[in-house]
Prior knowledge:
Elements (H helix, E strand, L loop, with lengths): L14 H32 L6 E5 L6 H17 L3 E5 L6 H8 L7 E6 H10 L11 E9 L2 E6 L7 H10 L4 E5 L5 H13 L3 E5 L3 H11 L4 E5 H9 L3 E6 L28 E7 L4 H14 L3 H9 L3 E2 L4 H22 L5
Parallel strand pairs: 1-2, 1-3, 6-7, 6-8
Antiparallel strand pairs: 3-10, 4-10, 4-11, 5-8, 5-9
Amino acid sequence: MGHTSGPLLFIPRCPEIIVMSVRHMLRNALAVLAATLTGASALAAASFPTGPVRLVVWTAPGSSIDISARVVAEALSQQWDKPVIVENRVGASGVIATKHVADAKPDGHTLLVTTNSGHVLNPLVRADIPFDPERDFTPLGVFAEGQYAFVAAADAPYSNLNEFLEAARQSPKGMAFGSPGQGTAMHLFGDMLGKKGGAELIHVPYTNMEVGSLTDMMDGALGAAFWTNLSARTHSEAGRIKVLAVSGDARSRVLPDVPTFSEQGFENYFSIVPWIGLFLPDGVPPETVEAISAGVNAALDDPKVQRTVQDGGFDLRKDSPAAFQQRLQEERKKWREIIQETGFSPT
């Protein structure tokens, strides 16, 4: 009669011990899995990028946004030792470029370079936007800020906001102001100024904003217009226009002698300034987001980047995804309030 010897398998009779053993094994397995996934994510972030990176811009080559994107791309390419390519997808006020990035693979290799006009305001004033700016994107950060300037002809009989508004109130037909188009930030700023100042301000949109509004202001057909700070400085120095106010919480580096809207009694809403920021498609791993954010902030230390961005009328801003997210929420809230108060209807 044979007897087979071998290791004895101890099976506990107590059900509680069996449950505890299974739980212990599951905890160990989950811990190993978590460590593996964490290690894989960290390794992916450390090796980023694994190929060419695209910065998708919605404005034409040679625009201030395009020039800023290209100099940042150059600095990132040197830092990452990988090609960083600027891709211009022009049209529909940024909708084409933004939709393209929303649909891109969420691996960090496709970024959107855009503005608050394109990404924050546009979806609030247009009913045909084919993307959700909050759900479809991961905010990366702002890297440049400018300021809006409210300008008038050099020989206009007013030199500040209150004098302008008083002239508008005294005019039987109100006062015309210019902007780059219906539903733009500058248009809504003008409507809000009239609302808060108790004056009838009539919006006049321009396709060629600078040339068209300058001609009409100098001819006396237009009372004032919203421009960029850099255009305002150029024509102010040439003696063609005067600058009545700038947006933002602080005076402009470009126009240091011009008071803000806030200094002249118009606070809160007029603190909004134009910015250039970066977005990723939704779903990019957090470690990769942080790695790209760190890379962009490091690129802003490059003297060539600083010089080029500032020459375009912008100030550089180092940012973080969390701070940018908070800023976006606050800015959307302000624009919704402006739209409600001015009675603007989405087109």
